[in-house]
Amino acid sequence: MPGIDECLLEAMRLPGARGAALVDWTSGLALGTVGEAPGGDHETTAAEAAELARLAAEHGAFAADDPDGERPPVEDLIVSNRDSYHLLRFVETTFDSSVFLHLWLTRAEGNLALARIRLGEMAERLVLG
Amino acid sequence: MTVVDTTPPPRLPVRDRTAAAERAWGGLSPMLTRLAAERASGVLVRELGTLYLSEGRVVHAESPLAPGLDTLLTAHGTLTAEAWRDAVSRADERSGAAHLLLAGGHLAEGALQLCHLGALYDAAYFALAPSSAPGRFRYGVTHRLGPVLPVPVAALERETLRRRDLLRRIWPDPRADSAPLARTRTTAAPKLTARQQALLERIDGTRTAAELARELGRQAFHTLADVRRLASAGLVAPRPPEATTGPVATDDGPAATDEGRAATDDGPTTADERPAAEGTGPAVSGAGPPPGITERIACTTDPHITLLKRLRDALEAL
User: Fold this and answer.
1) Closest Cβ opposite residue B115 in set A2, A95, A98
2) What residues make up the domain containing B260?
């Protein structure tokens, strides 16, 4: 059964991974970080990513058709720029929480489709063991 | 036209605020900073919460204002209450309750770490709130839960300060954090999230944010953030103290559960002290009209007056 650190280290084994973090999107707290962060500061990155995640999660435009209030309404968020990809995966827990996994990939080596599938599996294993 | 060139006035010296703040910085609790430096193990009891330390790092935190790990885990059926009680009763020096829960297969390690860290930062936010009473430290005391993921004191203090700032930016008035909450009418209510809707439906003029958080099985800080968003939208307001004494006293009678009663007991005491100690919010009562009008305005639900009050509060907080 993996803990938070093992989960983040596993994410770092994906091709092109530069950094990963587990972030609470209500408070902007980084619960765990590994590798680099854009700008060199994991805490600032977590707070900014949390703001983006909160907007996506709380606006009806992006929610799935069956909003039951318990599950995260959004699965993941993808942001791309000239040199990298950011992948935010919402973690579904059986208790009340608001966390997501944030993976930062270099654009040259990263494989977005693979990373998206793997990050989803990791998010599930993190809470279900 | 002749232009006379005068030398610009010399720039006034500016004190470097960040450097000054760092020099004067003794942490949120100087005692906690000292305990971290000497790598102490034991329990620090402060006015609004308790921090458990192991070798100078925080391993557990509890506060009467934040739902405990047990509440968070059992409220939505992640763990049965029996499994929790069993693990806590069997816990000893060698293996804590956390270890037993994992060994028994009740919980995945990631889920436990996630929920525990959330509960720790949540309770520490209140435990590190400004207090009027000195903290006490007892060496050698451990928590039955045992170690999960220790957090450095500096990280905890930074996060607590950041959270205070976050709440202040959402809505600067801290009274809604501790007072019983009441719904107000507004002219243009924004669309609420399902979480906010569930919270709003439970606001009935008697319970505080801390009690609602426990009832919903949510972290108290998350609830405070939602309450302040609702307050900023004009949907929720703290009930003024003079109006609450009546209904609270009657409602607290036979209907209240044991847990609810315990929570209301510490609610009002802190309600009076916290805003004053924190000093971040605007002082609202006092200046201006005679008390009769102030009282009537404080209780009104007229959308125009609530809008003006929100405008005034926001201006005062600038």
Assistant:
1) A95
2) 171-316
